[in-house]
Structure formats: C-alpha cells, structure tokens
Design a protein that fits this description.
The complex is a heterotrimer of chains A (135), B (86) and C (255). In chain A, 76% of the residues lie in helices and 0% in strands. With 135 residues, chain A is mostly helical. With 86 residues, chain B is mostly helical. Chain B has one domain (2-77). By secondary structure, chain C is an all-alpha fold. In chain C, 63% of the residues lie in helices and 0% in strands. Classes of the chains: A mainly alpha (135), B mainly alpha (86), C mainly alpha (255). Chains A and C meet through helix 1, helix 3 and helix 4 of A and helix 1, helix 2, helix 3 and helix 4 of C.
C-alpha cells in the first residue's frame, strides 16, 4: 500500500473511534438524562458506520451489490462478483437501525415519566430525592 | 482512484467529529439535537460514498426525521436548558 | 473525577486505533471480499444455476427475507414488544391538546400539502420495487410515517382526529400486517411440509412461488413481505407520534 493511502485510512478509522470515545464520555459524565439519550444514539450510529466501512472493497470501480438487469448474461454476473461490495454487513446494519429506534422511543417515554415523578432530570438530584423518600 | 474516496471520507468524518463534540458540550438541549442531526446528514453521505443505498434510504428517514422529533417532544414536556429546574 | 474518566477513555481509544490498524477487525484496504459474500453475490439471481437462487437481483433484500429470514422475524418481534411497552407507560393521556386548534400560516399549510403528495409516491415506489432497485419494506415504511408527522406540525392534532387517525385503528392495521407476514412464513411449513420462510423450489422440496406471474416479476415471496412490512412500520410510527403528542408532562406526583 502506498504511504498516503495508509495515512488517510488511519485518520478515518481514528476519527470514528474518537467519536465513540466522546459519546461514551457523554453517557458517563453528563448528569442530564436527555443528554445521555442523545449520546446513546450517536454511539449506535457510529458503530453502524464502522461496520459498513469494514465491508467495503477498495477496487478501482466498486459497485453496489445489485445486478443491473432482469435478464443477465454471464458477463454481468462475473462483473458483480469481482467488483461488488459485501452485502452481508448491510443486512445486519438495517436490523440494528430498527432495534435502536425502538429502544430510543421506549427510553423517551421513561424519561417523561421520571420527570413527572421526581420533578427534575439531573441524576444527582434524583438520587438525593430518592434517598429522602426512603430515609 | 482510491485516494479520492479516502479524501472524501476524511472530509466527512471531520465534519461528524466537530458536530458531535459541539453536541456533547452544549448546554442548550435544542441546539444539541440540531448538531446531532447535522452529524446524521454527514453519516448518510458516508453511506452513499461506501456504495450502500439501502442503508442510506433507511437512515435518512430515521436519523433526520424521527430521532430529532422524538427527542424534541421529550424536551417540550420537560425543560430546555441543562441544569434548569432544581 | 471527570479527568480520570476522560484519561481512561482516551487510553482505550489509542490502544483500539493501534489494534485496528494492525488488522484486528480484518484486512485494511483490501481488494478481495469474504467467501460467504461471494456466494451470496453469485447465487442471488443466477438464472443459469437455479440450485440456491433467491429470484431477486438485489442481494440485500434477498439476504434479509430469504437467506437470513429468521433475523428479520426476531427484529419485528423486538419492535412489537417495544411499542407494547410504550403504550403501557402512557396511561394518563390528556385530552387538552385535542381541543386546541392552532394552525400555522397559509404558506406553511400549502407547502405541507404539496410535499405530502411527493412523499407518498416516493414511499410507495421504495416499497413496491424493493427487490429490483435499492429499497424495501422498512425504508418505504419509515418514509411513509413522515406524513402524519407533517400534518401534526402544520395542522393540529384535532385535524388528524377528524381525518380518522386513532391509536386503536393504527394498532389494528399493524396487527393485520404482522398476521400477513406470519401467514406467508408459517403456513407452507404446516400444511405443505416445506421449510419455514421458503421462497424458491429447492432440489429436495420442490415447492415455491413462481418468480414471474404473466408480466409481473415478483421476487418469489419478497414482494409480499415488503408490502406487509410497509403497512406494519408506518402504522407503528403513527401510533407512537399520536401517543407522544397526547402525553402529559408537567405534574409532580406527591412533591
């Protein structure tokens, strides 16, 4: 591999991992519950992008994994097999997007119910009020 | 030819990194949601560059249309600035 | 305390970058692809060798509904249970939003009416042609679910109620769509002793849906799965939006 290709690829992988690190810091260290939900969605989407990047194929003319005609000749099929991108990570990522969406919708309902019960959304204040309730 | 793809990818991931750092460090929650939507647009263009059109259609509708709307509903029923009510 | 957390996360990120560039997640900058992906690409619309084919030129939809169809069945189950949890948590819906009828200006309303027509056409094209061009059931469904959202924003919730959108009607349509998916998947298994989610005739169980019906190219069972998934996903998001609008937020219980 040439030097400049390797350098740019290192930058792309490194910036995606730094986004994951920033999102994990946002989940742990910020006390507001809605900020935690936003950071969780950022984390899930970044991991999906990483999976698609692993399945890419660095030929000179890559193609999506679709056969372009309804009556293919053998040359069409061989062209797609030699230049087509991996279709299996894309199927996994579609499933992952749907499941993350369902979890986020449920979490938002929980957040609104917590606000109705405790009157605040900061985690340290919720712990203090919960301790006063039971103590 | 590969170097053009890699240059485009570095540009888009730099935009995504800047948007997510501003989203986590912002005190106004509505602005944080808008920065998260900007990062979703950058990711959708990355999916187009990496030859994955199925995921692009699914992710544009979900990441720019449904996620910010659900979180904005949550902000409207509670409060807007971080550290607001005591 | 925060500096300690930031330091630990930064060290983990540096170690991860070094591990990835040395090949812990696969080769970097390759020109080959894995052998299982080559099998899927070669045999998904191979009219010359019909042993393992899936009658659909689009490899991703064939993987989602034919080669790995059980994954999609379980994902639909997770979506179903999550929506059930949402509806259980929304017990105190306030009806005060139903009487407030604020409309936006006439420019916004006309723009919304024009955009809704285009969105409906695009969503139906994505769902109907999901096995020939990129698209599919979930893509069409989530694009179709933007329509009640725009109506909720420009017109009020009372206008949506006058149009006939209720939560229980959306639930009933969604259950019909799920029943259609289950019928196509399970009934050949029970009555004809075929495989679960069988699409095309296999050499030892020659039962399948023909992939050409006069002039319509169905992708086997994939066309019907995509249509059912469009109904399921769009009605599910409509129910979530209506329930979120009516949820009451501003009351402390007991403080």
């Amino acid at each position: 591999m040439e030097g400049i290709n390797y350098l740019l690829a290192t930058y792309v992988y490194a910036s995606l991992i730094v986004i994951v690190a920033v999102a994990i810091y946002g989940i742990i260290a910020k006390p507001n519950l809605i900020k935690k939900v936003i950071a969780l969605t950022i984390l899930g989407d970044t991991v999906n992008t990483f999976i698609i990047l692993i399945g890419y194929r660095f030929v000179s003319k890559p193609k999506p994994p679709v056969i372009p005609t309804l009556h293919p000749s053998p040359e069409d099929i061989i062209n797609i097999v030699k230049n087509g991108v991996d279709p299996l990570p894309q199927a996994f990522v579609i499933t992952a997007i749907v499941i993350n969406l369902a979890i986020t919708a449920f979490l938002v309902m929980l957040v609104v119910r917590i606000y109705r019960a405790y009157g605040t959304l900061e985690m340290n204040l919720i712990e203090r009020r919960k301790g006063e309730e039971h103590g | 030819m590969i170097i053009f793809t890699l240059a485009l990818l570095t540009f888009l991931t730099t935009i995504a990194l800047a948007a997510t750092i501003k989203a986590i460090a912002e005190k106004d929650l509505v602005k944080a949601v808008v920065f998260s939507a900007l990062q979703s647009v950058a990711y959708a263009i990355i999916y187009g560059v990496l030859m994955a059109p199925d995921i692009l259609y699914a992710y544009i509708a979900v990441g720019v249309g449904i996620y910010p709307v659900i979180v904005l509903y949550a902000i409207a029923k509670t409060y807007r600035f971080e550290g607001g009510r005591k | 305390m925060r500096w300690f957390i930031a330091l630990v996360i930064a060290l983990t990120a540096v170690v991860l970058v070094k591990a990835v560039m040395d090949g812990c997640l696969g080769y970097i900058l390759t020109t080959d692809v894995r052998s299982i992906a080559e099998f899927y690409l070669r045999s998904t619309y191979n009219v010359f060798n019909k042993t393992h084919w899936a009658a659909s030129p689009e490899a991703v939809n064939a993987i989602l509904w034919d080669y790995r169809g059980l994954d999609t069945v379980y994902e639909t189950t997770v979506l179903f249970i999550a929506l059930l949890g949402c509806l259980v948590l929304a017990t105190k819906l306030s009806s005060e939003f139903m009487e407030v009828g604020e409309w936006l200006t006439i420019i916004a309303r006309t723009g919304v009416k024009l955009i809704i027509m285009f969105i409906a056409i695009i969503a139906l094209i994505l769902a109907f042609k999901g096995y020939v061009t990129p698209g599919g059931g979930f893509q069409g469904g989530s694009a179709f679910a933007i329509i009640p959202l725009l109506i909720l924003a420009a017109f009020s919730c009372k206008y949506l109620e006058n149009l006939g959108y209720r939560v229980n009607k959306a639930e009933a349509l969604r259950s019909l769509g799920l029943l259609a998916i289950a019928a196509i998947a399970v009934l050949p298994f029970i009555f004809l002793s075929a495989y679960f989610l069988q699409n095309q005739p296999k050499p030892w169980i020659p039962i399948g849906i023909p992939h050409v019906i006069t002039f319509i190219y169905t992708g086997g069972t994939i066309l019907f799965y995509n249509l059912a998934e469009l109904v399921v996903v769009s009605m599910e998001f409509t129910a979530i939006f209506i329930v979120l609008t009516l949820l009451r937020g501003e009351e402390h219980g007991g403080h």
